[in-house]
């Protein structure tokens, strides 16, 4: 009896007619190496009814690609005695190193603010976890500063209308990764939204990593600082010396 | 030509970096300054993270100085004894600079301090050099020689205890003076990612009173070893030396340094000094404006 009740509750909670999302990412590994100048990820998939047929209604699709979060200090410059200096700062424990969102329609038209905040749909709703007590106005100023900064260098993106849905089944979104993407495990989340409610979600992972000589150099610099320093000194002296010899011959 | 920089974590146009290196190399060979005072700000302007820019510029200055030191050695323009004393001071200065760097970074004031240092140092030294070279040029034109300086070195230098003979520099002074000078430039190298040549050369001329034909060579000699120490210090503490970036810069700067050194022998030293003074003053002016203008980025991010 209890099992039946539990099952019933499950069905009632998830909604029997909620669709199934079958998401896929064009590549699960992004390799940072010579020649990498940024890339474009294709996030695509299908929305189906539980029976596996075409969903007979329109869903809004929202795709979020998020990089690993970092603890950062965000500093703000203010004019003090005629000079611009870092005058205020805040510490954020979970600032995403990369965040891109694409949706089939503007987020504000798809969900209400509360849902958007819960699912972190949009740059406005990033959970940055500030450390210490800070008043909301100041916090809002800092977050919009961070968002603005990262948007301009291409690490935060918001593309309303970036998702196209075909025949109520297939959806796709292109998300750009600039050359300065940080490494780490990224999560690609897809949400199917109907009447302001998230009815299905699915996520997959993308690994951004350095490969080959680039990885070797980065690891070498991090793990063997002394030897790496010697190598850097050797390279610079050798190149200077070589140039000196070559020009002496001329 | 796109090149991915493994430490800076971004890709850049390699040719631009090589050209930047060449520009500083020419300055280095011509004037005996490291040229870091131009590379570091230009790299930051190009979008390279400031720490990586400062750390990698140091190794680029090393390369440019090696070929410069060779070029000046060939014509006997290096006082090794004086150089050694200043190197010792420089290495001490690098250590002190590293401590100061960490402290300022924690306070979040490193950028402002660096900018103010640039303005004050470049402004005062540029002004001094410009004044002097204009006086000499005027004296040449009118044929009236300027009155010879009475004291060759600063009175404070003469009051220091213990005296050594520096034959090539034509000096009999206390080694403490060049040692302190070395410490000062070592701190600047670590903080600003510069060789310190633009401070060193006038200080050697006007404070120590070294004979002019060994000033450039000896300052390059000191810069060579101090920037090596700086690179090591960065590799050990900040891990921000990007060897790919440094190699690209080096490619340009070592060739530039040779060209610059050849040029320096042909051009008149007074005019060279005036040109350097103008460049230095321009950079200082730009920096001073930068302090007062609203910066492009109000917000900056640093890892916690």
TrEMBL record, chain A:
It comes from the Bacteria. Keywords: Membrane, Transmembrane, Transmembrane helix. InterPro entries: CHP02186-rel_TM (IPR019088). The chain crosses the membrane at residues 226-248. This is Putative transmembrane protein (Alph-Pro-TM). It comes from Novosphingobium resinovorum.
Automatic annotation (TrEMBL), chain B:
The keyword Transmembrane helix applies. Its main location: membrane. The chain crosses the membrane at residues 12-38, 82-101, 113-130, 171-199, 205-228, 240-264, 270-289. It comes from Novosphingobium resinovorum. It is found in: Cell membrane; Membrane. It holds the Pfam family TauE. This is Probable membrane transporter protein. Keywords: Cell membrane, Membrane, Transmembrane, Transmembrane helix.
């Amino acid at each position: 009896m209890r099992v039946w009740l539990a099952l019933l509750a499950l069905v009632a909670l998830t909604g029997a007619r909620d669709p199934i999302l079958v998401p896929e990412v064009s590549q699960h590994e992004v390799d940072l190496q010579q020649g990498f100048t940024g890339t474009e990820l294709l996030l695509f998939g299908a929305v189906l009814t539980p029976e596996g047929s075409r969903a007979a209604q329109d869903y809004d699709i929202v795709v979020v690609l998020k990089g690993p979060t970092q603890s950062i200090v965000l500093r703000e410059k203010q004019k003090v005695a005629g000079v611009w200096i870092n005058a205020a700062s805040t510490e954020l424990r979970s600032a995403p190193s990369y965040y891109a969102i694409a949706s089939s329609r503007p987020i504000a038209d798809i969900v209400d603010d509360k849902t958007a905040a819960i699912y972190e749909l949009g740059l406005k709703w990033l959970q940055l976890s500030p450390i210490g007590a800070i008043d909301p106005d100041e916090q809002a100023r800092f977050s919009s500063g961070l968002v603005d900064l990262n948007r301009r260098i291409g690490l935060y993106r918001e593309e309303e209308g970036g998702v196209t849905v075909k025949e109520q089944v297939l959806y796709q979104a292109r998300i750009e990764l600039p050359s300065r993407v940080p490494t780490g495990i990224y999560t690609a989340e897809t949400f199917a939204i109907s009447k302001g409610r998230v009815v299905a979600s699915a996520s997959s992972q993308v690994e951004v990593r350095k490969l080959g000589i680039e990885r070797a150099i980065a690891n070498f610099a991090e793990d063997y600082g002394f030897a790496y320093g010697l190598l850097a000194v050797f390279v610079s002296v050798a190149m200077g010396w070589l140039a000196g010899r070559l020009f002496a011959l001329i | 030509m796109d090149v991915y920089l493994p430490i800076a974590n971004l890709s850049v146009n390699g040719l631009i970096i090589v050209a930047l290196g060449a520009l500083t190399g020419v300055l280095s060979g011509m004037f005996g300054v490291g040229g870091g005072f131009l590379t570091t700000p230009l790299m930051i302007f190009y979008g390279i993270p400031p720490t990586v820019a400062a750390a990698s510029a140091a190794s680029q200055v090393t390369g440019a100085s090696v070929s410069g030191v060779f070029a000046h050695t060939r014509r006997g323009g290096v006082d090794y004894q004086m150089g050694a004393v200043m190197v010792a001071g420089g290495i001490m200065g690098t250590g002190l600079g590293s401590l100061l760097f960490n402290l300022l970074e924690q306070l979040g004031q490193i950028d402002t301090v660096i900018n103010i240092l640039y303005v004050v140092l470049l402004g005062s030294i540029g002004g001094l050099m410009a004044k002097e070279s204009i006086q000499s040029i005027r004296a040449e034109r009118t044929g009236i020689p300027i009155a010879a300086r009475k004291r060759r070195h600063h009175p404070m230098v003469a009051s220091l205890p213990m005296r050594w003979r520096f034959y090539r520099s034509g000096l009999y002074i206390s080694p403490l003076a060049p040692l302190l000078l070395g410490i000062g430039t070592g701190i600047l190298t670590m903080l600003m990612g510069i060789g310190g040549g633009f401070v060193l050369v006038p200080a050697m001329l006007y404070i120590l009173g070294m004979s002019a034909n060994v000033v450039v060579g000896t300052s390059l000699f000191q810069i060579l070893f101090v920037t090596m120490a700086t690179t090591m210090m960065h590799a050990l503490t900040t891990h921000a030396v990007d060897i790919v970036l440094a190699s690209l810069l080096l490619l340009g700067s070592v060739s530039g340094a040779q060209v610059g050194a050849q040029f320096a022998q042909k051009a008149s030293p007074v005019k060279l000094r005036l040109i350097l003074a103008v460049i230095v003053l321009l950079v200082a002016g730009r920096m001073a404006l930068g302090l007062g203008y609203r910066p492009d980025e109000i917000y900056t991010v640093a890892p916690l």
